Amino acid sequence: MNIDVQIGDTILTGKFKNKKVVVKKFGTDDKGQPTINGMKMLAFRIKKLMPLSDKEKEAQKKAKAVNIFDGAIKEYVNKVIDKEINKG
pTM for the full model? Predict the structure, then answer.
C-alpha cells in the first residue's frame, strides 16, 4: 500500500479530521504500526506488522510440529511402497 505523504505536507487529524498538522517525522509505535509525528497514522492495525501474541506463537510451534510429523509419516509410507514395488 502506498500513501502519498511526505515530510512537510499538511494532513488533517482529530476525531472529525479537521485539525491541520504538518508532517515532521514518520515512525512506528510499540506494536509496529506506522505513525506520523508519533501519532497513529491509520485507524486500523495491520496484522502482518504486529508482533505475535503468546497464543499465536504456541499455535505456530504446534503447526510446525504437526507438519514435521506428517512429513515423516509420508516419507515412511513412500519407503514402504517403494520396497513393495521393487519386490514384485
Answer: 0.50
